[in-house]
Amino acid sequence: MVTEERVRDQLRNVIDPELGMDLVELGLIYDIGIHDEGRHVDVTFSLTSPMCPVGDLIQEQVETEVLSIEGVETVNAQLTFEPMWNPDMMSPAAKLFFGR
């Protein structure tokens, strides 16, 4: 069964190349929606900066990782900057790693 937790775990494989940490720990995954009994997944995510040169690559990786989950047939990975990401959105472990 496809769950938000399962999708979030899979998205830990998507690493922000600039910071070397996964999108989940960085707080860049804003929302996950599971639809049609798990066959379709919506992921709303952000980047650490609107000027990020690898945004397209990260979006592609988000889609690839979610599609690798058994039962998922389609994914909509939506990039947003609302709200704008900030370091306070990171997990406690990421904050500790970065000395925050």
Would you mind describing this structure in some detail?
The chain is of the alpha+beta class and 100 residues long. The protein has a single domain, classed as 2-Layer Sandwich (GMP Synthetase, Chain A, domain 3), CATH 3.30.300. Helices cover 31% and strands 23% of the residues. The chain is built from four helices and five strands; from the N terminus they run αββαββαβα. The strands form two sheets. A three-stranded mixed sheet has the order 3-4-5. Strands 1-2 form a two-stranded antiparallel ribbon. The longest helix has 13 residues, at 55-67. The termini are far apart. The model has no long low-confidence stretch (mean pLDDT 95). InterPro entries: Fe-S_Maturation_MIP18, FSCA_dom_sf, MIP18-like. It comes from Rubrobacter xylanophilus. This is MIP18 family-like domain-containing protein.
Quick structural overview:
It is globular and about 40 Å long. It contains 4 helices and 5 strands; from the N terminus they run αββαββαβα.
Outline the secondary-structure elements.
Blueprint: H1 4-11, E1 15-16, E2 21-22, H2 23-26, E3 29-35, E4 40-45, H3 55-67, E5 74-79, H4 92-97
Parallel strand pairs: 4-5
Antiparallel strand pairs: 1-2, 3-4
Protein name: MIP18 family-like domain-containing protein
Domain MIP18 family-like: 4-76
Pfam families: FeS_assembly_P
Keywords:
5 strands, GMP Synthetase, Chain A, domain 3, three-stranded mixed β-sheet, 4 helices, Fe-S_Maturation_MIP18, two-stranded antiparallel sheet, FSCA_dom_sf, alpha+beta, 31% helix, 100 residues
Number of domains: 1
First-residue to last-residue Cα separation: 37 Å
Computed structural class: alpha+beta
Order of helices and strands: HEEHEEHEH
Protein name: MIP18 family-like domain-containing protein
Domain MIP18 family-like: 4-76
Organism: Rubrobacter xylanophilus
